[in-house]
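Regression report. Comparing outputs from two consecutive submissions.

Submission 1:
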Amino acid sequence: MKLKDVMTTDVECCEPSASAAEIAGKMRDQNVGSIPVCENEKLLGLVSDRDIVIRCVAENAIDASAEHVMSTEMVTGHSDMSAEEASDLMAKHQIRRLPIVEDGRLAGMVALGDLSVTNAADEKAGLSSEEERFALPFYWCNLFSCK
């Protein structure tokens, strides 16, 4: 399955000038752990709940802007990437959210939860195929009296 089939496309972004308090409010309202920072649809960075705790709360700088709080070294994916590739990439870099970028523009986001649904469906499909493979010889033996 491709990421374009499971990614969230209506991603709420913030501008570089947004305050950490505004971003935290967006995270709360949308029940997400990170907000992309974009300018003219171009992904500049990502502000995570951890970024806010470490760079704002711990430093007593809750009014700091997104451009001062965001992480700019990001791992990104593309919409034609397979769910398995994305899962491997996220595990390798120990990240829970993967921005999907097309032509330098943010196209969507994929979270681990999106991939776990895909993996569960793949596993179920795999089990069905395996069950069919083992059931087939028994079916033929019943038909043709194999011993």
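Submission 2:
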Amino acid sequence: MSAVDTLLQRLRGRATGPQPCADAGPRFLVTKQSWRGQYHRVLCITPAALITHYPETGDTTNVWSLAGDADIVGLEVGPDSPEGGLFTLRMAPRKGKDVKLACRARTALLTVLYQSLATLQVPIPPALLSPPTLYPTWKLRRGVWVPATLRISSWCVERLDPATGSVRWRLEYANAATPAVHLLEADQSDPPGASCLALFGRAGRSPRVHALRDRAGALRALRGAAQRGMGLVLAVDASAAASGPALLAAVAASGRERGAAEGPLAQWDVLSVHDVAAAAAAGGAGSPTGAPAGSGPPRGVTRRALVLTREALLERRAGDYELAGWRPLARLAAAVRYADDPQWLGLEWGDGAPACAYVTPARDALLAAIVDVASRAAGRPIPVLARPTAPGDALVAARGQAARVPALRPNAEVERIVLGQLTAAARQFAACGALSSSSATLALAGLSSQAGLTGRGVEAGGGGAGVGLKNSGTMTPRQDAAAAAVRRAFARQGPGAPGGGQGAQDPEAVIAAFQQRVRELNACVPASGVHAGSKADEAVVAALVAHLPRQQAAPVPLGLDEATLAIEALQCLDRLASNLVVGAQVVGAAGGASRLFACMLAGNAHLAYEASRLLLRLFSPAAARSGLPAWQAGGCAASLLGPGPLPDGLLGAAGSGPDDP
């Protein structure tokens, strides 16, 4: 069996660990406008409904269905305002007045909304989602014109395989370049009666050259769909003095020159993995591939030569070494070191480009090199995740911010919201008596609650993985055993466990809710840390420390879920510890220092890495903020060792959808 066959067989295996629930969806900070005034809401887009929450408490305020007897029958895009781009939800007569909202990330919000609508297997009102327009076309691929179909919809343009109808390529209007369309000159190799155009995206891939017999009609449909559906004006360059083959030849030559000029630092032979069927389901476009052992549709595997330079990551075809993709490292949002497979590496990008997934035996060497070079190129630390970012973890609030990936820049309003919700969840966590539980028990509690066994107490605003608005009612044997173990563990505490209220009656739901808040803070606050004036309650630090392994006489290997939760807790502590007061709380917490060093001796490389990063934060804050090694950060900054300059030394110097295979 070949390596590719082995990989495909593993891709069909069953997923382990917590999985996103069916109704998890991206979240956006919006401003609701009415005759009573303007007020903020968190808008969660699920496959079947739009849900709004109070930012401070996470309580649900409105639920508007999109399927069946829909509450929303139309959508109208308005002009820009000081609060962001305006759009109006046309409500059904039984729902009363229309709802006017403003969002600074309106383009990303509408893209996700249209994706969700496109996945519904029910009729959609044309006023809400216009039917797509199809144009027969030819796509120029390696000098050969291949028949295809262009589908133009309200949020993207796609190329379909005419034989199967599957999506082979997609360009979202939100990720289109400026100009997005170049009109090309005729060439003797063009199909008879067809005119050519090239579509450009902001991601570092070559343009797509198409030949259409009705180029003018397709161009009008493309620009009209972007204007009506997204409020975007796609720029068109009609002055291009090149044919389709000449353009692709020039792009290939430019790629060769770029690779020679930048100078490669290292190169790896990898398998590039993308979800083939995710293109057919609009909701899966642009999102990272699932867990490496995940069940689901087949994935495409392509051999690539991955070249790392000081400024970019280049994908080259294994056969002819031509440039297949170019990604600037400064836009890297996070790297994913899959905890359940030692060969899988994921990369999440903050510019709207699709996530990458690679398979290589040298995964950790590749990861270390990318994180080191990307931190220097971006001037900030690059987080290393144990699993991909769930759709609802990040709260999108800024113009140009990508959904489904961790935030790149700090946002004071979002930070205040997620920190307040984390504090409330930590207090409930302490009230239910979970502070004295082992990290293994806490991992089992999160697993059992995410199975949908206990939805009580987690409805408040949880849009991310595992904390949904409704229970699935399904239970695997592993989750059943987890729930039983958790209930036995908390039953031993007796009826006098602190709290006595709902938290004590349903501890696994409270624990899962806190763990979800931790993931949300990690996705909403950049790895550089919180603002200097931010404060964290002592209950937050205590609850996070409780997720770390206890110091043992001999190292005890951690389970997969237990190690993942400890990694996420350390990443949350690292962000909070950018405030020196919180850093002192971490060191002074009961068992805080011993558990921190226990993480380094637990036999898990990723856990030891995160513990070392937290130690770097405590002893060299400037280096942690910049993502540089402590001995290269330079400058002076206060630390837990005291204000002012520190001695030099190790801790001393303070300072577009699936692509063609």
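Expected: both submissions complete independently.
Actual: both completed, but the second showed a warning that disappeared on reload.
Relevant detail on submission 2: The radius of gyration is 25 Å.
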